[in-house]
Protein backbone atom coordinates (compact mmCIF):
# COMPACT_ATOMS: atom_id res chain seq x y z
CA UNK A 1 0.00 0.00 0.00
CA UNK A 2 1.38 3.37 -0.99
CA UNK A 3 2.33 5.81 1.73
CA UNK A 4 -0.45 8.23 2.48
CA UNK A 5 -3.21 5.87 1.34
CA UNK A 6 -5.84 5.38 4.08
CA UNK A 7 -6.30 1.87 5.38
CA UNK A 8 -9.85 0.53 5.45
CA UNK A 9 -11.41 -1.07 8.54
CA UNK A 10 -8.69 -0.03 11.02
CA UNK A 11 -8.61 -1.35 14.57
CA UNK A 12 -9.23 0.50 17.84
CA UNK A 13 -5.48 0.73 18.40
CA UNK A 14 -5.24 2.87 15.26
CA UNK A 15 -7.72 5.33 16.75
CA UNK A 16 -5.80 5.35 20.04
CA UNK A 17 -2.55 6.05 18.20
CA UNK A 18 -4.04 9.12 16.53
CA UNK A 19 -5.47 10.37 19.83
CA UNK A 20 -2.01 10.15 21.40
CA UNK A 21 -0.44 11.99 18.48
CA UNK A 22 -3.03 14.79 18.51
CA UNK A 23 -3.56 15.27 22.26
CA UNK A 24 -0.41 13.88 23.89
CA UNK A 25 0.66 17.33 25.08
CA UNK A 26 -2.84 18.71 25.78
CA UNK A 27 -3.39 18.95 29.57
CA UNK A 28 -7.11 19.61 29.05
CA UNK A 29 -7.73 16.46 27.04
CA UNK A 30 -10.30 14.00 28.36
CA UNK A 31 -10.28 10.59 26.74
CA UNK A 32 -13.61 10.10 24.95
CA UNK A 33 -15.85 7.14 25.63
CA UNK A 34 -15.03 4.86 22.69
CA UNK A 35 -17.48 2.08 23.52
CA UNK A 36 -19.66 2.86 20.50
CA UNK A 37 -16.66 3.14 18.21
CA UNK A 38 -15.31 -0.22 19.35
CA UNK A 39 -18.67 -1.87 18.75
CA UNK A 40 -18.87 -0.35 15.28
CA UNK A 41 -15.38 -1.56 14.38
CA UNK A 42 -16.18 -5.06 15.64
CA UNK A 43 -19.56 -5.17 13.88
CA UNK A 44 -21.47 -5.56 17.18
CA UNK A 45 -23.10 -2.12 17.49
CA UNK A 46 -26.89 -1.99 17.67
CA UNK A 47 -26.57 0.96 15.28
CA UNK A 48 -25.54 -1.47 12.53
CA UNK A 49 -29.00 -3.05 12.61
CA UNK A 50 -30.26 0.20 11.14
CA UNK A 51 -27.33 1.81 9.33
CA UNK A 52 -23.90 0.99 7.98
CA UNK A 53 -20.43 2.35 8.64
CA UNK A 54 -16.86 2.15 7.36
CA UNK A 55 -13.71 3.38 9.11
CA UNK A 56 -10.56 4.80 7.54
CA UNK A 57 -7.15 5.66 9.00
CA UNK A 58 -3.72 6.93 8.17
CA UNK A 59 -1.78 5.10 10.85
CA UNK A 60 -0.70 7.50 13.56
CA UNK A 61 -1.95 10.55 11.64
CA UNK A 62 -5.69 10.48 10.97
CA UNK A 63 -8.89 8.57 11.64
CA UNK A 64 -12.54 8.89 10.54
CA UNK A 65 -15.71 6.81 10.29
CA UNK A 66 -18.31 7.28 7.56
CA UNK A 67 -21.97 6.52 8.41
CA UNK A 68 -25.10 5.96 6.31
CA UNK A 69 -28.33 5.75 8.31
CA UNK A 70 -31.68 5.45 6.47
CA UNK A 71 -33.40 6.89 9.54
CA UNK A 72 -31.57 10.19 9.12
CA UNK A 73 -32.26 10.16 5.39
CA UNK A 74 -35.96 9.53 6.05
CA UNK A 75 -36.13 12.36 8.60
CA UNK A 76 -34.38 14.89 6.31
CA UNK A 77 -35.89 13.61 3.06
CA UNK A 78 -32.43 13.73 1.49
CA UNK A 79 -29.55 11.29 0.82
CA UNK A 80 -27.48 12.47 3.79
CA UNK A 81 -24.44 10.68 5.20
CA UNK A 82 -22.07 11.65 7.97
CA UNK A 83 -18.45 11.46 9.05
CA UNK A 84 -17.53 11.09 12.71
CA UNK A 85 -14.66 10.30 15.07
CA UNK A 86 -12.53 12.61 12.94
CA UNK A 87 -9.04 13.15 14.33
CA UNK A 88 -5.90 14.25 12.46
CA UNK A 89 -2.40 15.53 13.04
CA UNK A 90 -2.27 17.74 9.92
CA UNK A 91 -4.34 19.26 7.14
CA UNK A 92 -3.07 16.69 4.61
CA UNK A 93 -3.86 13.78 6.92
CA UNK A 94 -7.35 15.13 7.58
CA UNK A 95 -7.92 15.54 3.87
CA UNK A 96 -6.80 11.97 3.24
CA UNK A 97 -9.35 10.30 5.50
CA UNK A 98 -12.09 12.80 4.59
CA UNK A 99 -11.62 12.07 0.89
CA UNK A 100 -11.75 8.33 1.52
CA UNK A 101 -14.87 8.68 3.66
CA UNK A 102 -16.57 10.88 1.07
CA UNK A 103 -15.76 8.40 -1.72
CA UNK A 104 -17.33 5.60 0.30
CA UNK A 105 -20.40 7.70 1.08
CA UNK A 106 -20.73 8.62 -2.57
CA UNK A 107 -20.65 4.93 -3.51
CA UNK A 108 -23.63 4.43 -1.19
CA UNK A 109 -25.72 7.08 -2.90
CA UNK A 110 -24.99 9.90 -0.44
CA UNK A 111 -25.09 13.39 -1.92
CA UNK A 112 -24.29 15.45 1.19
CA UNK A 113 -21.91 14.61 4.05
CA UNK A 114 -22.15 16.13 7.53
CA UNK A 115 -19.25 16.29 9.99
CA UNK A 116 -18.42 16.01 12.87
CA UNK A 117 -21.44 13.72 13.22
CA UNK A 118 -21.00 10.25 14.72
CA UNK A 119 -23.92 8.63 12.93
CA UNK A 120 -26.48 10.06 15.36
CA UNK A 121 -26.41 13.12 17.60
CA UNK A 122 -26.51 10.85 20.66
CA UNK A 123 -23.11 9.40 19.74
CA UNK A 124 -21.46 12.80 19.33
CA UNK A 125 -21.90 15.87 17.18
CA UNK A 126 -20.32 19.25 16.55
CA UNK A 127 -16.95 20.91 16.13
CA UNK A 128 -15.71 22.80 19.16
CA UNK A 129 -15.47 26.53 18.42
CA UNK A 130 -14.21 28.07 21.66
CA UNK A 131 -12.66 27.46 25.12
CA UNK A 132 -9.92 25.27 23.65
CA UNK A 133 -7.73 25.48 26.74
CA UNK A 134 -10.33 23.84 28.98
CA UNK A 135 -11.49 20.24 29.35
CA UNK A 136 -14.55 19.52 27.20
CA UNK A 137 -17.91 19.60 28.91
CA UNK A 138 -19.53 16.21 29.52
CA UNK A 139 -21.06 14.85 26.31
CA UNK A 140 -19.40 17.52 24.17
CA UNK A 141 -16.59 17.48 21.64
CA UNK A 142 -12.92 18.22 22.17
CA UNK A 143 -10.93 19.09 19.05
CA UNK A 144 -7.98 21.34 18.20
CA UNK A 145 -8.77 24.80 16.85
CA UNK A 146 -7.06 23.97 13.54
CA UNK A 147 -9.68 21.42 12.53
CA UNK A 148 -12.12 24.10 11.35
CA UNK A 149 -9.76 25.41 8.68
CA UNK A 150 -8.83 21.87 7.65
CA UNK A 151 -12.49 21.09 7.02
CA UNK A 152 -12.88 24.24 4.94
CA UNK A 153 -9.84 23.35 2.84
CA UNK A 154 -11.45 19.93 2.25
CA UNK A 155 -14.57 21.62 0.87
CA UNK A 156 -16.83 21.58 3.94
CA UNK A 157 -18.87 24.61 5.05
CA UNK A 158 -20.64 25.30 8.33
CA UNK A 159 -24.37 24.63 7.93
CA UNK A 160 -25.67 24.29 11.50
CA UNK A 161 -24.56 24.31 15.08
CA UNK A 162 -25.24 23.74 18.75
CA UNK A 163 -24.98 25.95 21.81
CA UNK A 164 -24.40 25.41 25.52
CA UNK A 165 -25.97 27.73 28.08
CA UNK A 166 -24.80 28.23 31.65
CA UNK A 167 -27.31 28.55 34.50
CA UNK A 168 -25.66 30.01 37.60
CA UNK A 169 -27.01 28.26 40.68
CA UNK A 170 -25.14 30.61 43.03
CA UNK A 171 -27.33 33.52 41.92
CA UNK A 172 -31.09 34.04 41.97
CA UNK A 173 -32.07 34.34 38.29
CA UNK A 174 -32.77 30.62 38.01
CA UNK A 175 -35.20 30.69 40.94
CA UNK A 176 -37.95 32.53 39.07
CA UNK A 177 -39.69 29.68 37.21
CA UNK A 178 -41.81 27.36 39.33
CA UNK A 179 -41.05 23.66 39.71
CA UNK A 180 -44.66 22.96 40.62
CA UNK A 181 -46.33 20.66 38.09
CA UNK A 182 -49.41 21.88 36.23
CA UNK A 183 -52.80 20.46 37.20
CA UNK A 184 -53.16 16.81 36.30
CA UNK A 185 -49.38 16.27 36.07
CA UNK A 186 -47.01 14.77 38.63
CA UNK A 187 -43.26 14.25 38.70
CA UNK A 188 -41.35 11.13 39.65
CA UNK A 189 -37.68 10.31 40.06
CA UNK A 190 -36.09 7.58 37.96
CA UNK A 191 -35.61 4.27 39.78
CA UNK A 192 -32.02 3.05 39.58
CA UNK A 193 -32.87 -0.64 39.94
CA UNK A 194 -35.12 -0.27 36.87
CA UNK A 195 -32.58 1.76 34.93
CA UNK A 196 -32.95 -0.20 31.68
CA UNK A 197 -36.70 0.37 31.64
CA UNK A 198 -36.23 4.03 32.52
CA UNK A 199 -33.77 4.49 29.64
CA UNK A 200 -36.24 2.89 27.24
CA UNK A 201 -38.99 5.28 28.39
CA UNK A 202 -36.60 8.22 28.13
CA UNK A 203 -35.70 7.22 24.57
CA UNK A 204 -39.32 6.92 23.46
CA UNK A 205 -40.03 10.41 24.79
CA UNK A 206 -36.88 11.84 23.21
CA UNK A 207 -37.74 10.42 19.79
CA UNK A 208 -41.21 11.96 19.97
CA UNK A 209 -40.09 15.32 21.38
CA UNK A 210 -37.19 16.00 19.00
CA UNK A 211 -38.56 14.75 15.71
CA UNK A 212 -38.64 18.27 14.23
CA UNK A 213 -35.23 19.40 15.53
CA UNK A 214 -32.36 19.74 13.04
CA UNK A 215 -30.05 16.73 12.90
CA UNK A 216 -32.23 14.46 15.02
CA UNK A 217 -33.36 11.03 13.87
CA UNK A 218 -34.83 7.98 15.55
CA UNK A 219 -32.62 6.31 18.14
CA UNK A 220 -33.55 2.78 19.17
CA UNK A 221 -33.94 1.51 22.71
CA UNK A 222 -31.11 -0.96 22.08
CA UNK A 223 -28.75 1.83 21.02
CA UNK A 224 -29.72 3.88 24.07
CA UNK A 225 -29.05 0.98 26.42
CA UNK A 226 -25.63 0.38 24.87
CA UNK A 227 -24.78 4.05 25.25
CA UNK A 228 -26.29 4.82 28.65
CA UNK A 229 -26.21 1.49 30.45
CA UNK A 230 -22.84 2.05 32.09
CA UNK A 231 -23.81 5.56 33.22
CA UNK A 232 -26.28 4.19 35.77
CA UNK A 233 -24.03 4.88 38.75
CA UNK A 234 -22.86 8.25 37.43
CA UNK A 235 -26.38 9.73 37.25
CA UNK A 236 -27.92 10.68 40.62
CA UNK A 237 -31.54 9.47 40.42
CA UNK A 238 -32.88 12.87 41.49
CA UNK A 239 -31.35 14.39 38.33
CA UNK A 240 -33.27 11.96 36.09
CA UNK A 241 -37.00 12.67 36.34
CA UNK A 242 -40.24 12.12 34.48
CA UNK A 243 -43.51 14.00 34.18
CA UNK A 244 -46.55 11.71 34.46
CA UNK A 245 -50.09 12.37 33.27
CA UNK A 246 -53.04 10.08 32.53
CA UNK A 247 -51.05 7.18 33.94
CA UNK A 248 -48.07 7.45 31.60
CA UNK A 249 -44.83 9.36 31.22
CA UNK A 250 -45.24 12.47 29.06
CA UNK A 251 -41.98 14.29 29.71
CA UNK A 252 -38.44 13.83 30.99
CA UNK A 253 -35.32 15.66 32.10
CA UNK A 254 -31.86 14.15 32.39
CA UNK A 255 -28.81 15.70 34.07
CA UNK A 256 -25.49 14.26 35.16
CA UNK A 257 -22.36 15.58 36.83
CA UNK A 258 -19.68 16.99 34.54
CA UNK A 259 -17.36 14.07 35.21
CA UNK A 260 -14.74 15.61 32.92
CA UNK A 261 -13.82 17.98 35.76
CA UNK A 262 -12.18 15.06 37.58
CA UNK A 263 -11.23 12.92 34.58
CA UNK A 264 -9.07 15.48 32.74
CA UNK A 265 -5.90 14.97 34.82
CA UNK A 266 -5.85 11.18 34.42
CA UNK A 267 -6.53 10.87 30.64
CA UNK A 268 -8.70 7.77 31.04
CA UNK A 269 -12.31 7.12 30.12
CA UNK A 270 -15.01 7.11 32.78
CA UNK A 271 -15.69 3.45 32.07
CA UNK A 272 -12.07 2.33 32.55
CA UNK A 273 -11.21 0.81 35.97
CA UNK A 274 -9.18 3.88 36.96
CA UNK A 275 -11.93 6.17 35.63
CA UNK A 276 -14.59 4.46 37.74
CA UNK A 277 -12.36 4.69 40.83
CA UNK A 278 -11.56 8.34 40.28
CA UNK A 279 -15.19 9.26 39.71
CA UNK A 280 -16.21 7.46 42.90
CA UNK A 281 -13.43 9.10 44.90
CA UNK A 282 -13.77 12.63 43.57
CA UNK A 283 -17.36 13.08 42.40
CA UNK A 284 -18.15 15.37 45.33
CA UNK A 285 -15.57 17.80 43.95
CA UNK A 286 -17.53 18.25 40.70
CA UNK A 287 -19.17 21.68 40.63
CA UNK A 288 -21.07 21.52 37.34
CA UNK A 289 -23.96 19.40 36.14
CA UNK A 290 -24.92 18.92 32.53
CA UNK A 291 -28.54 19.24 31.50
CA UNK A 292 -28.36 16.74 28.67
CA UNK A 293 -32.01 16.45 27.65
CA UNK A 294 -35.45 17.75 28.43
CA UNK A 295 -38.41 16.87 26.26
CA UNK A 296 -42.14 16.31 26.13
CA UNK A 297 -44.63 14.25 24.23
CA UNK A 298 -45.81 16.71 21.52
CA UNK A 299 -49.39 16.44 22.78
CA UNK A 300 -48.28 17.85 26.14
CA UNK A 301 -46.06 20.66 24.95
CA UNK A 302 -46.93 24.31 25.62
CA UNK A 303 -48.31 23.71 29.12
CA UNK A 304 -45.29 24.72 31.19
CA UNK A 305 -44.25 21.15 31.96
CA UNK A 306 -40.82 21.49 30.35
CA UNK A 307 -40.05 24.66 32.32
CA UNK A 308 -41.14 22.97 35.54
CA UNK A 309 -38.93 19.96 34.79
CA UNK A 310 -35.89 22.20 34.27
CA UNK A 311 -36.71 24.11 37.47
CA UNK A 312 -36.94 20.83 39.34
CA UNK A 313 -33.60 19.69 37.93
CA UNK A 314 -31.97 22.97 38.95
CA UNK A 315 -33.37 22.68 42.48
CA UNK A 316 -32.01 19.15 42.80
CA UNK A 317 -28.62 20.14 41.38
CA UNK A 318 -28.36 23.00 43.88
CA UNK A 319 -29.39 20.69 46.71
CA UNK A 320 -26.63 18.26 45.72
CA UNK A 321 -24.05 21.05 45.90
CA UNK A 322 -23.57 21.91 42.24
CA UNK A 323 -22.84 25.56 41.49
CA UNK A 324 -23.89 25.63 37.85
CA UNK A 325 -25.96 23.72 35.34
CA UNK A 326 -24.92 23.72 31.71
CA UNK A 327 -27.72 23.08 29.22
CA UNK A 328 -25.73 21.20 26.60
CA UNK A 329 -25.98 20.94 22.82
CA UNK A 330 -29.08 22.99 22.13
CA UNK A 331 -29.55 23.06 18.36
CA UNK A 332 -29.29 26.60 16.99
CA UNK A 333 -32.71 26.10 15.37
CA UNK A 334 -34.37 24.88 18.60
CA UNK A 335 -36.20 28.04 19.61
CA UNK A 336 -38.28 26.27 22.25
CA UNK A 337 -35.23 25.13 24.22
CA UNK A 338 -33.54 28.52 23.85
CA UNK A 339 -36.67 30.17 25.21
CA UNK A 340 -36.77 27.78 28.16
CA UNK A 341 -33.15 28.34 29.18
CA UNK A 342 -33.63 32.12 28.93
CA UNK A 343 -36.24 31.91 31.71
CA UNK A 344 -33.50 30.66 34.02
CA UNK A 345 -31.03 33.40 33.16
CA UNK A 346 -29.02 31.03 30.99
CA UNK A 347 -26.05 32.61 29.23
CA UNK A 348 -24.33 31.34 26.11
CA UNK A 349 -21.05 29.67 27.10
CA UNK A 350 -19.96 27.32 24.26
CA UNK A 351 -20.68 26.79 20.59
CA UNK A 352 -20.20 23.87 18.20
CA UNK A 353 -20.48 23.76 14.43
CA UNK A 354 -21.59 21.11 11.96
CA UNK A 355 -20.10 21.22 8.48
CA UNK A 356 -21.40 19.83 5.18
CA UNK A 357 -20.02 19.01 1.77
CA UNK A 358 -21.95 18.34 -1.42
CA UNK A 359 -20.82 15.07 -2.99
CA UNK A 360 -21.02 15.25 -6.76
CA UNK A 361 -20.83 12.07 -8.83
CA UNK A 362 -17.42 11.13 -10.18
Give a verbal description of the structure.
The protein is an alpha+beta fold. It has two domains: 7-162 and 354-358, Aminopeptidase; 168-351, Aminopeptidase. The protein contains eleven helices and 13 strands. It has helices at residues 12-23, 35-42, 70-76, 91-107, 147-153, 195-209, 221-228, 260-263, 273-282, 305-319, 335-343, and strands spanning 7-8, 52-58, 62-68, 80-88, 112-115, 127-128, 157-168, 186-189, 240-245, 248-257, 288-296, 324-331, 347-358. Strands 1, 2, 3, 4, 5, 6, 7, 8, 9, 10, 11, 12 and 13 form a 13-stranded mixed beta sheet that branches. β9 (240-245) and β10 form a beta hairpin. The mean pLDDT is 93.
Termini, distance in Å? Answer: 23 Å
- The ordered H/E elements are EHHEEHEHEEHEEHHEEHHEHEHE
Helical run tally = 11
Count of extended strands: 13
Residue runs with pLDDT of under 50 for 5 or more positions: none
CATH architectural group of the largest domain: 3-Layer(aba) Sandwich
Question: Which class best fits the helix and strand makeup?
Answer: alpha+beta
- Radius of gyration computed on alpha carbons: 20 Å
Shape: globular
Q: Name the quaternary structure.
A: single chain
> What is the top-level CATH class of the largest domain?
Alpha Beta
Per the CATH scheme, the topology name of the largest domain is: Aminopeptidase
What summary fits the major beta sheet? 13 strands, mixed
Number of domains: 2
Question: Please, what is the average pLDDT?
Answer: 93
